[in-house]
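Chapter summary example.
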Amino acid sequence: MTPATGALPAVTGRRSARVVARSLFALTKPRIIELLLVTTIPTMLLAQRGLPSAKLLVFTLIGGAFAAGSANTFNCYLDRDIDAVMKRTSRRPLARKAPFAVIKPTEALVFGVVLGAAATLLLGLLVNWLAAALADGAILFYVFVYTLGLKRRTASNIVIGGAAGCFPVLGGWSAVTGTVTLPAVVLFAVIFFWTPPHFWALAMKFRDDYAAASVPMLPVVAPASVVARKILFYSYVMVAATLALAPYAGWLYTASAVGLGVWVLAEARRLRARVARIDAESARAATLANATQVGATQVGVSHESSANAAAGPGVAEGACAGAARPSTNPAPMRLFHLSIAYLTLLFVAVAVTALLPWGRW
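The structure predicted for these 361 residues follows.
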């Protein structure tokens, strides 16, 4: 890996096993897997109302990691064409062109199949077959419903397709109890409604990338004001879903959910206010530019002068760009990172509630 860029080196001869292994590992999107495991462990603790056996915990986490890695590898295989177009994903192993390509698409596909099979067998034989079936369902949903069915066709792709990331809580709960009950469904709903605001904030930042790849993420096909409004709406629904767990989880969790909810809603409202302010500035700038152009025409100035006036003050053009292209606005990434911290802390509260002998109703 080159020190300056962190990129994989060019492949000029025989492939290093270390480089191949690192590339295969990168296909699994380990940062996403980390977040999935963050939600799985507290769910298992809550289902057990304490610590499950170390064996059950380890096998469930390994099986879940294999399943998530399989789904992400299939996603990289299927989206390698658009990954190559988008700057944010252009360094993924399958998006790289020769001589920088380390692994072949077929090898990645086989790797995804092996991971999926390993997840199924490990969970089925060492945990239970319901947990294995839920893991397989997550893989199939992510690949066929989201990646192949929705991602390139509709702006609702992440609203529906994001359900794939909710399956780990069902798998964790079923690993402990052998069934799926209401608290697990509530946790599923929390992550389901958390996903759109989280991802739309990222897509606002990288709107140009998705537009270049012809992926109709909501920030590509809708004004920033619409995106910000929907982020705020889903944030309210998400916070309401967290409170639905209160009767089961206890007062300590409830107090944490309320505090964290106020925090994330304040940031979502901040984003909406910022976008509204940019829109207002853009409208004023456009009005000023039009008035300048009309005035210049009325006094009979030269065509070149009129053109310069119409191009208008540099501030006017920048303001319009800020409204039409949210990637110029730093606020979305603040919400994106905050949403990760929010979900992590919420599930930490779930874990603490499950482990402490007090904090329940």
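To summarize the output: The radius of gyration is 24 Å.
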